[in-house]
Amino acid sequence: MSAAATALPVFARGLCDDAAVFPPGRAPLPEAVDRHRGHCSAAYRDLVGPLVLAAPALDELRPLVRPDDDLALAVTAPAGPGQLAGAVEAAATLPVRMVAAEVAVPGDVTEFFAELDRLEVPDVTVHVEVPRDERRTAVLAGLAERGLRAKFRTGGVSAELHPGEDELAAAVVAAVRADLPFKATAGLHHAIRNTDPETGFQQHGFLNLLLATDAALQGSDETAVAGLLARRDAAAIAAAVRGLGADRAETVRRSFVSFGTCSITEPLAELVDLDLIPAALAGGQGVNA
Hints:
This protein is 39% helix and 17% strand. It has 289 residues and is an alpha/beta fold. The strands form two sheets. An eight-stranded parallel β-barrel has the order 1-2-3-4-5-6-7-10, surrounded by six helices. Strands 8-9 form a two-stranded antiparallel sheet.
């Protein structure tokens, strides 16, 4: 089989950040680190982004890394910029590369950006989690001004943590109009919009979000973007993703840069089932790894 026949399409490259330790997966850190090494050496490795860890976990990571490790990390700082500063220092003492940070806005927006501006985080891509309240506009403006990236929460462990189609569409359109790259976190457990049979949660699909971002880039309004987020016809969505082509997919991915997932192989398996990536890339991997 040729390399072209097993190449990962542009839309999927680096799409899945490895958030195995976060809910609902909650993998123990030693297991998550071992699995991440496996993902990074597998045939589907180009699908995989950094291992996502909360800042306090860096101390626990120390005995788990090897001298020859070169783990790429995205570190979350839910307590704000002060926690990020400590994480940068801790990561510098480990055989890891801290390539990204994800910082929450715990309080006042002006104070948050003043504290963030005082930090020095060279070679670290900073995402700021955009609050789902009246602070959103100010946070997005502050990010665009500084050339930082947004992080949108798309779900969680309770129903109220899942934004509706209209809310997420407004966020996507605002980010695109501000030329603001973003990642998504939580809730994107499947490729297509769905209702979780166990919880009843209305879950967004990561392919829906991909197409919604493309629509926003093409100038669609929030109503049209929300309509794409709501679609559940898997075959039509897969055909639309396939129809993006390499150049347009690359443009979309410059805006929607990745999403965090507690399983790498579940989205991999769904993309294979939708005939969007070659089955050979999945090898013999089980969907629960």
